[in-house]
Amino acid sequence: MPDLIAFLTDYGTRDGFAAVCHGVAATRAPSARVLDLTHDVPPQDVRHGSVVLARVARHLPPAVYVAVVDPGVGTTRRGLALRAGTSVLVGPDNGLLPPAADVLGGVSDAYALTNTTLWLPAVDRTFHGRDVFMPVGAFLAAGGALGEVGDQVAAGSLVRLPAPGRTRTATSLTCEVTYVDHYGNVQLAGDEDDLVVLRDWAAQGWVDIEVTGPGPARAGEPGEPGAPGGVRDRARVGRAFGDVPAGELLAYLDSDRRLALAVNEGSAAARLRVRGGAVITVAAPTEA
């Protein structure tokens, strides 16, 4: 089992929650390394966390991933440990883990965390990252067998997040916002094929942009909470931020090879007033 613990949460760094989990890892698996992937996932934003986890998993060596974005903590939702390729992912059964597992080769074994002897002696209903997930992750990173964490479950029983919405017609593409990054770049549920179509539509130099749904307000994510839909704009189609002048909106393919919107030296999320879950329609221009 890998001795690298790759750690992702929405805990932030102000309150010491992540540091406490580091302490548990150091106590239970003193020879293991802990790599902080991020603790800045917007609070309770499972989809955002799943995107980051899958993005990072493509580039890491074999690891024990401990991922905690867990608005259902203390409820009947399961804790899981999943074998995927040469790595293991530990966290809640809420859709956070499967996208990264898919990147790592798919789930080959899945276990519910029912072996309570591996947990901390006193389990708080609001801090399973400290009391359940990190102790199990540390057990595995210290050489423990995956089959000892609990009962085996069917891979098909895992909770998966709904596929983000995407509809393309002859003249428009309507996509859900799947992710907003630190810079305010807006990732959409579109791909390279969609960008090729946008380039055809942009014969006049731009495509029309309309926000048709605002998405939920989430603390810590760029954009304006509760902003209404109906924002209209135009974007040029390019390959890099410098393809457009400063302050101009760009449609491009991001480093995840997903369709995205950005403002050169600015924030597309703030300009369009959107967050994750918003709906954006990109269309062939209707006027010269």
Automatic annotation (TrEMBL):
<dbReference type="InterPro" id="IPR023228">
    <property type="entry name" value="SAM_OH_AdoTrfase_N_sf"/>
</dbReference>
<dbReference type="InterPro" id="IPR002747">
    <property type="entry name" value="SAM_OH_AdoTrfase"/>
</dbReference>
<protein>
    <recommendedName>
        <fullName>S-adenosyl-l-methionine hydroxide adenosyltransferase</fullName>
    </recommendedName>
</protein>
<dbReference type="InterPro" id="IPR023227">
    <property type="entry name" value="SAM_OH_AdoTrfase_C_sf"/>
</dbReference>
<keyword id="KW-0949">S-adenosyl-L-methionine</keyword>
<dbReference type="Pfam" id="PF20257">
    <property type="entry name" value="SAM_HAT_C"/>
</dbReference>
<dbReference type="InterPro" id="IPR046469">
    <property type="entry name" value="SAM_HAT_N"/>
</dbReference>
<feature type="compositionally biased region" description="Low complexity">
    <location>
        <begin position="213"/>
        <end position="224"/>
    </location>
</feature>
<comment type="similarity">
    <text>Belongs to the SAM hydrolase / SAM-dependent halogenase family.</text>
</comment>
<dbReference type="InterPro" id="IPR046470">
    <property type="entry name" value="SAM_HAT_C"/>
</dbReference>
<feature type="domain" description="S-adenosyl-l-methionine hydroxide adenosyltransferase N-terminal">
    <location>
        <begin position="5"/>
        <end position="150"/>
    </location>
</feature>
<feature type="domain" description="S-adenosyl-l-methionine hydroxide adenosyltransferase C-terminal">
    <location>
        <begin position="175"/>
        <end position="280"/>
    </location>
</feature>
<feature type="region of interest" description="Disordered">
    <location>
        <begin position="213"/>
        <end position="234"/>
    </location>
</feature>
<dbReference type="Pfam" id="PF01887">
    <property type="entry name" value="SAM_HAT_N"/>
</dbReference>
